[in-house]
Design a protein that fits this description.
CATH architecture: 3-Layer(aba) Sandwich
Number of domains: 1
Order of helices and strands: HHEEHEEHEHHEE
InterPro entries: Methyltransf_11 (IPR013216), Methyltransf_Superfamily (IPR050508), SAM-dependent_MTases_sf (IPR029063)
CATH class: Alpha Beta
Protein name: Class I SAM-dependent methyltransferase
CATH superfamily: Vaccinia Virus protein VP39
Strand content: 15-25%
Number of strands: 7
Distance between the termini: 38 Å
CATH topology: Rossmann fold
Mean pLDDT: 83
Shape: globular
Keywords: Methyltransferase, Transferase
GO molecular function: S-adenosylmethionine-dependent methyltransferase activity
Organism: Bradyrhizobium sediminis
Largest sheet: 7 strands, mixed
Structural class: alpha/beta
Oligomer: single chain
Strand order of the largest sheet: 3-2-1-4-5-7-6
Amino acid sequence: MQSTDLDRSIVETAYARWAPIYDAVCGPVMVNGRRAAAKAARATGGRILEVGVGTGLSFDDYDASTEIIGIDLSAPMLAKARERMASGRYPYVKDVRLMDAHRMAFADATFDCVVAQFVITLVAHPEQVLSECHRVVKPGGRIILVNHLYSEKGVAAAVERWAAQRTRGLGLRPEFPFARLQAWAHANNDAILVERRKVAPFGIYTLVCFERAVSSAA
């Protein structure tokens, strides 16, 4: 089942409201998924783009072996991220920019790794964002996603379908299936699924990693 896409204005409005309390409310809830994604990104290393950088909660999860560029659609969230940068604690975070992930202002093959934490189920057109991530990552580079993904069957799926209609105004889409990510990869011959795993300890979140294949000509 393909979930109904979110409207951009709903997401922008929701996250403007979330900005003042996002760290306190979402930080503890998402910490394991966030750290798992950053750890996978550090293993790739190099220049990393974080899509949906938000308030910069993930800055502590990177280190000097990386160079971080962040983008987000929410100006209030980015204001919080810039406050973090101004502390001087994160010299490896080079810039955060107001940017729509559907149309990134980066050249092809700019980054060694692209990370999207709790983002792909929230954007208006996920396949378009995935294709943009694929465009800006270098051949041999990786796209790392972490999210709660739709359970697809059983009681959990029924609950998520029920919740979906009641959480859309909060900028959420709990019924997003892994099959949708898989279908995108199948439609892109050089997008290779290299990892899909539940994040410990509770398996609420799933980490998914795609690699952009290196062409035979290269």
